[in-house]
Amino acid sequence: xxxxxxxxxxxxxxxxxLVLLLVFAASSHANPIKTDHAQAYLISPLESLGTxxxxxxxxxELKIDPHWHTYWQNPxxxxxxxxxxxxxxxxxxxGPIVWQAxxxxxxxxxxxxxxEHHAYHLVKLQKTQKASKNQxxxxxIQLQAKWLICQEDxxxxxxxxxxxxxxxxxxxNPQADKKIQELxxxxxxxxxxxxxxxxxxxxxxxxxxxDLASHSPIQSLYFYPxxxxxxxxxxxxxxxxxGDQTILKIKKGSLPLPDSLTGLLEIQGPQKSxxxxxxxxxxxxxxxxxxxxxxxxxxxxxxxxxxxxxxxAMPCVFPVLSLKALSLSKKARNDHSKVILHGLSYTLxxxxxxxxxxxxxxxxxxxxxxxxxxxxxxxxxxxxxLIYLFFxxxxxxLGYFPLYFQPNLxxxxxxxxxxxxxxVTGSLATIIATPCTAPFMAGALGVALSQDAFTGMMIFxxxxxxxxxxxxxxxxxxxxxxxxxxxGAWMETFQQALSFPIFLTLVWLFWVLMQQxxxxxxxxxxxxxxxxxxxxxxxSKLKLxxxxxxxxxxxxxxxxxxxxxxxxxPTSQNKSSPKEGLSSQNYSAKKLAELLEKKEKVFVYATAAxxxxxxxxxKVALGTEKVKSFLEKENIKxxxxxxxNEDPEITIFxxxxxxxxxxxxxxxxxxxQKPRVLPQLLSPKLLIDHLKKE
Length: 694
Known about the structure:
The protein has 694 residues and is an alpha+beta fold. It has 5 domains: 27-186, Thiol:disulfide interchange protein DsbD, N-terminal domain (Immunoglobulin-like); 190-282, Immunoglobulin-like (Sandwich); 297-517, no CATH class; 518-567; 585-692, Glutaredoxin (3-Layer(aba) Sandwich), CATH 3.40.30. The chain is built from 20 helices and 25 strands. The strands form 5 sheets. A 7-stranded mixed beta sheet has the order 16-19-20-14-15-18-17. A hairpin with a 2-residue loop joins strand 8 and strand 9. It is globular, with a radius of gyration of 30 Å. The termini are far apart. Mean pLDDT is 79; it is low at 1-10, 12-26, 284-295, 404-416 and 575-579.
């Protein structure tokens, strides 16, 4: 009996020890998160870090449901790479993802790059020089992971994962460490150098045959570029041996090729293997046009400049430019040097604002590739801010607010018409021009976001200089100022009349907001406008004497009016704007592929509620009975890519044609023929003529 009790106690202790061991070992694994179509894991090879630990690897793993897939860093024809956002102890930073080799995932005429069943993402955590010496006993790691998972439909998924590791005595989890080491070995591709040539519609990748000798006999080769849009993923890649070189022929994609290519070469021999490729452009004469070449770059800068000039005619910007013209008319007979200074100050305000906006966009694109020109209009919070701004501008034009951009018309303080006022007006013109895409702009901006930072910044500054040019040229040339009407009482009346286009723009912005959020939240913005009006009325009635009292009341009333604005979400809630005008289906890469596979003719138009050019085209061309009848008669299917709210799939579609914003009109005559890009400004005749072309 005693023996049995001892044995029972011993077995119980063993069981308890096993449970404790499993619980302790689980500290190196985050609790898995189950989403609709995947299970997410965060795994560490360490259960506890040593005090001298300088770095270690983490594994973010997705176990994917059958028939679903996620994407590689270059998703191919459609899709989106996963995004990982880390929160680490002070003094630690996360490196880039180390990717496993992808596989090709065909979808109709398209081919994507990604993973089925399992997707492994290795990230190295590194201690920086500023790491804290007084590390807490627990080493807490948090990860916010977002990914796109697709079968026939594509669904964005996300997970919040966390690990709480010990700190002080290093302890390894053998099973996790073994798995991570195996994945590191499988992702450690042998690097080889290569070169490539550009042809009109293709590129030739030149490989040293000696580098491929150990993989013979070779059955097929396929090159996966790390950057999206450089090649046509679905096009076959053919190869041949020429002396000591192996030449791989690849069909070019929609984006211009850079001067260097990096990617993976898949070799199908006795077994499948991969090489890491770093290829440089051969110094032979180039037959394709590269935007970084001087001749082509100057043309793109000219297009950006012309697009900037046309921006002045947009309904948002035109009233502000008119105000500057009034101010210029007032100064026309004054000191010429002062007029020039005002013109230069206005130009500087625009250029500096475009530099900030362009620089911010170029930086954010590294982390968020889906961002493009006008991306801020996808935020209801930014649209709400613009509604407030335009409302204040309208009240200013009616004489209720003495803002900097209001010209001195004789009865206003001259301090409102100083150089700082001209600078602020330039900045204001830039802000209110952001929803617009003028002709010539889209192609130039597409190049700006696909090139190096210096080239991109030059294009943004050219666009800004075009916006500033009309006012600047009048300021610099006295003879042109003579054609301006003489100042008089009519100027104040004209200024007040300019408030009404501004208020109409405000109505349009409110309509955009209603496409993005529910009616209860959008109505709060109207409450905010009433609070602004009430604040202005109350401020005038109080008649406070000291500047401290006036400033205090102004701040309190201003903050009060911002409360309704704070209720707006930073991202859109509604899925799409109402369908009006042209009968269409919602765009998706899958839907386009299906229609082309059925030998259908397809017209795709990318639009947004906040894009003025898009709305004009839809009213004067796309929505007309003439165009509708033609499309129906010719049996042309129409897909609407509505970019009012953020949509990564539409962003990828735009990037395929080198565009950074809407509008974009593309006609697919057939699956065999190349898609045809239409002009940005449409009329019924122009649209129909382009669709009739063979």
